[in-house]
Amino acid sequence: MPNKKFWEFRNSAGGTELLLYGDISQSSWWEDDVTPKQFADDLNDISDAEDITVRINSGGGDVFAAQAIGSLLGARKGKTTARIDGLCASAATIVACHCTNVIAANEATYMIHPVRMGLFGYLDATELEQYIGALNTIKENILNLYVKKTGRDKSEVTEWMDATSWWTASEAKENGFIDELVDDEDVVVENRNGALFVNNISMNLPFAKVPKHIQNELVHSTGSVNNPPEVIPVNNSHKEEKKMAEIKTVDDLRAAYPELVNEACATTVNEAVTQERERIRDIEDMAMPGFEDQTNEAKFVKPIAANEYAVNMMKAAKKSGEAFLNSAKEDANGSGVNNVGQDGNNEEGKEDPFINAIHAVNKK
Question: Is the separation of the CB atoms in 233 and 195 below 8 Å?
């Protein structure tokens, strides 16, 4: 598989630059040939560079790749300046917020949105709750980064994120995401068959879905009229969603999020053990003498719920009681006690010598 790095380090007249143009992690960040370690190695190769300029023109992509890049850039000793040449959206904003300073062209655009995850297959309520928990954790981490960068209240930043906010460079600066605006960058917006291109780079976004102020840039920059097609190409979905949609099996999920899967499995196992202990305890509390075999079968051989066991025990007890009464009745009939009258005579009116003997003893 050929190496498809989505970043490029280069030397320019102004110093060392890191280019993040297009999708962040357009090939799998976790493949053997494109890894966080490889980016770290490339960054280490320019460790002599005191300052780095990160040039951004990206619609976003893999949030974990962006977090890894941002963390590595933020950990270096020199100054790191983000320079937004066109669009800085979604996961690309994570990289920008890790930089020491953020500069943007006056015509640039900034966008933040809620964390999203694409899923295939059938899920139960517990699995859905686990995914929701993962999304909330990712969102919380990004929110904390935004709050640190902007200095704004967390509730305000949360509202921006939940609403999917598109801003001009000036608006993003007012909200604290951009530190400085410059006029020396020309932003060229294009509509190519319904897809948004900025400075000749595909943003993997439908042109018809971007805000009007971006669509208006099409007229200003190219002189052509904005005529988006009625049908939006289905293959132009956002890369971040496309990336998540590649998780189709449990093995895929475990490979992408090993810590999350291990935590979920541990929680599920603990809950199952607790429930099983409670089931066995409840059955033992309801167990009755003489039904040891049925109780053992309900606990281990053919496990059933405690409430089902209770119903079975009621039926068994009723059946056992009826059998006891029938047996007592048969014993009474067999002993002849039912044929004895008060005067010692049997049903045929004849004297019973055994009964007469008992009466004689009692009279003494």
Answer: yes
Those residues with Cβ within 8 angstroms of residue 66's Cβ, 6 or more apart along the chain or in another chain: 24, 60, 91, 92, 94, 95
The DSSP line for 60-87 is -B-HHHHHHHHHHHHHSSSEEEEEEEEE
Query: Which of 196, 297, 245 lies closest to 62, judged by CA?
Result: 245
- Per residue in 27-54, pLDDT (tens digit) is 555 554 556 678 888 888 888 888 999 9
pLDDT digits (tens, 9 = 90+) for 265-284: 777 777 777 888 888 888 88
Q: Give dist(CA 38, CA 64) in Å, integer.
A: 15
* Rounded-to-integer distance, Cα 58 and Cα 74, Å: 19
DSSP state of 352: -
Tokens coding 198: 């900025």
Backbone dihedral angles phi then psi of residue 53, each to the nearest 5 degrees: -105, 125
Half-sphere exposure of 247 (CA within 13 A, CB side): 20
How distant, in Å, are the alpha carbons of 129, 139, 216, 326, 332 from that of 116? 14, 9, 28, 70, 79
The answer to whether 18 and 53 are in contact (CB under 8 A) is yes
* 117 Cβ neighbours under 8 A, 6+ residues apart: 131, 134, 135, 244
DSSP tally for the chain: helices H, then strands E: 13, 11
Structure tokens at 116: 């999203």
Contact 359, 344 (CB under 8 A): yes
- Long-range contacts of residues 148-153, Cβ cutoff 8 Å, at least 24 apart: 148/97, 149/97, 149/176, 149/177, 150/175, 150/176, 150/177, 151/176, 152/176
CA distances from 7 to 58, 90, 276, 357 (A): 11, 17, 52, 117
